[in-house]
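help with this record:
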Amino acid sequence: MPSRLLTPDFFIDAPDEVARRLLGKLLVRKPDSPDDETTSGRIVEVEAYFGAGDPAAHAYSGKTARNAVLFGPPSRTYVYLIYGMHHCLNISCEPEGTAGCVLLRALEPVTGLATMARRRGLPSDASARLLTSGPGRMCQAMGITRLDHNGIDVTDADSLLTVMEDGYGTPPMDVTPRIGIQKAADRLLRFSIQRNKFVSKG
């Protein structure tokens, strides 16, 4: 099946529903220059975050300059920095005005592995699992930063970042609590493809 772009309607539902549907889709990062190459990976691990009812979410306390994209239209990227050094990529959900997003935690690399390794500061033949397993590694390997990629519409064919459907289908999934949070840590809002070796450990 030829790859096709997802539509904004795909992202208009609740974050947990969108998170489940994102598993198996392709995240595609266009090159910055003619000398660069496209990098892409299959989404194998995600987490859902809601708004006012989710104390672990960035939108919990309301709209700010930092999180404004979460209150806008669905299908927009929300990129933030943690620990002052690692970027994380989310995609907004819900109708405009209602905050919600899905955090992409891991990809299975598909194209551009040598470029991913270079961005990660690794040898070109480094293990593929070292490239995009975990949200910080994933963003580094895909060259994603808040400065350059926050607020992008992943359903626009002209965007540097897009999400594609290629007929992979609905994979069997594991559902577990989210990782690395202290509030609402018991909620079963982490979704991953069963037995996929690129899922981050936690």
User: Anything to note?
Assistant: The mean pLDDT is 94. Helices lie at 15-22, 113-120, 129-132, 135-142, 146-149. The first helix runs from residue 15 to 22. The chain has five helices and nine strands.
